[in-house]
């Protein structure tokens, strides 16, 4: 069930960020936002762990800050794969990756409380 919550939150982040910052993120419609959320979930499931394994030494040397770069790469791949969602610039990829990270941390913390 938590997977569904994550998809809903990710979809809402895409849509709300698009309406708040239309020059930063373009979302064609709700369908594109849902597809982007599903693709992001799949990338977080399969690609992100591989990137963490490969970059483990760098992550240790940077005291975990390299995880932000990994999140940015995953989000950029999502942007490249989904045609209805476009992130305009690496600065916005950085901001969105932080927002997604905080949202996922919040979801994880609320799941542990239950």
Automatic annotation (TrEMBL):
Membrane-spanning segments: 7-24, 30-47, 54-77, 89-107
Entry keyword Transport: no
Keywords: Membrane, Transmembrane, Transmembrane helix
One Pfam entry name: Phage_holin_4_2
Protein's name according to its UniProt entry: Integral membrane protein
Classification lineage: Bacteria, Bacillati, Bacillota, Bacilli, Lactobacillales
């Amino acid at each position: 069930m938590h997977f569904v919550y994550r998809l809903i939150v990710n979809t809402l982040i895409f849509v709300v960020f698009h309406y708040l910052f239309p020059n930063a993120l373009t979302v064609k419609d709700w369908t594109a936002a849902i597809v982007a959320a599903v693709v992001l979930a799949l990338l977080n499931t399969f690609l992100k762990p591989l990137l963490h394994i490969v970059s483990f030494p760098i992550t240790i040397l940077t005291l975990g800050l390299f995880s932000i770069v990994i999140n940015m790469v995953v989000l950029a791949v999502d942007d490249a794969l989904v045609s209805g969602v476009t992130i305009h610039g690496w600065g916005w990829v950085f901001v969105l990756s932080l927002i997604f990270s905080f949202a996922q941390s919040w979801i994880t913390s609320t799941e542990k409380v239950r």
